[in-house]
Amino acid sequence: MPAGTPTGRRVLIVGAGVVGLLTAMECVRRGDDVTVLDQGPIPNPAAASFDQNRVVRALHPGDPTATRAAADLHGRWLELERHLATPLFRRLGVLLVQPAAEALGDLRLMRAAGVDGEMLGPKQLRQRLAHLRLPARAAGLLEPEAGVLLARRVLTATTRWLRQHGSVRLLPYRAVVEVDPAAAAVTLAGGSTLAGDLLFVAAGAWSRSLLAGLLPAPVTLYRQSVLYRRPDPAESTAWGATPVVVLRTGPHAGGWLLPPGAGTDLKVSTHAVCRPVERLGSRRTPPSRRRALDHLLRSIVPGAAAPAPTETHDCYYLADRATGGAVLTRLGSSSSPTWAYAACGGGGFKTAPLIAREVAGLRAPPPRPPVRARPPGRAAATPGRRTT
Ligand SMILES: Cc1cc2nc3c(=O)[nH]c(=O)nc-3n(C[C@H](O)[C@H](O)[C@H](O)COP(=O)(O)OP(=O)(O)OC[C@H]3O[C@@H](n4cnc5c(N)ncnc54)[C@H](O)[C@@H]3O)c2cc1C
Asked: What is the C-alpha separation between 256 and 264, in angstroms, rounded?
């Protein structure tokens, strides 16, 4: 994908997670001059995006609007996969295990939104997934076009692409400590400042503290524990035909399982180990949560009793306190050139191409002089910018 004809617009992006990186790519494609800052390396293993994989599916049960909006998401990812010439998406299907009446309702909703779906009766479900222990009378609703994104690979391939373009500066180890929405400017740890014509803050779970006092509505910080189990080569045939499984009924309702493959582990988690917390903390999983995940794994994958190395880690995300969803918002006044993706609502990987396109398409005031680092203590060249 070539860079577009130069627009002269200077875009400053804080955060090199999936949202920041894809937005940078989209801006380059439109001809902007882009600077990306991250507090750590780029990509950063501490980012929520830096995991083995993430699910992309269209169905949002009970929500026709969200389902319609997500109907073509996997298509966006396939487009990106072609541009980056790297496999990023595994079309495994996503299977919701739920009571038959609910599955029928969701199937109607999918079809109305133009999304393919297939019902599996309880017997079919058990035949197809004989290696899993699923609730006795449950039905299955399969979304065959859905699947998983190889998340880490998305970040490394996008970073590689950005490095090849002269109109992008990737600046690792630049922690932003303050945001000035009116000036589209940031202050870095150490005191220097940077400014752009458009500033986009995509700081993931760190947004709550970085943007304290700037967000229009409260957000909740969640911490979730996840268990990974190395794939056992003897099981590869069974897993090769296994979709992502989401349990919506039975003793483990709220649980989900991502099958192993393409270099990724078998992965399980459940809403039961996702909890609101006050602040970002350790990524180590507390023993009680680890036990809960071990129990979940052994309950739904009977073969997992065989010894295979497992590990767990904890990960954080923000959600709008009122809606539980994502927050893309302008910061400051209604004409401010600063925007933030301040919460992802737990599904922010798959929608990153949509956010990137929306942010890159934002109209900003006419271009100003170049984005550049300024040592602490020196006055800004442009009136109205922050001074240190
Ligand atoms: C357990 C779990 C499972 C999930 N499953 C799914 C799923 O299946 N499907 C899905 O679509 N989504 C899923 N999500 C959500 C998804 O992972 C996130 O929405 C997405 O990765 C967020 O991307 P981001 O770029 O906004 O933030 P991040 O990836 O967290 O990136 C933020 C970046 O900003 C940098 N940064 C932060 N503060 C500063 C600062 N002050 N200065 C400079 N840099 C800074 C950080 O270092 C980081 O690199 C899941 C999340 C979790 C926790």
From this structure: 16
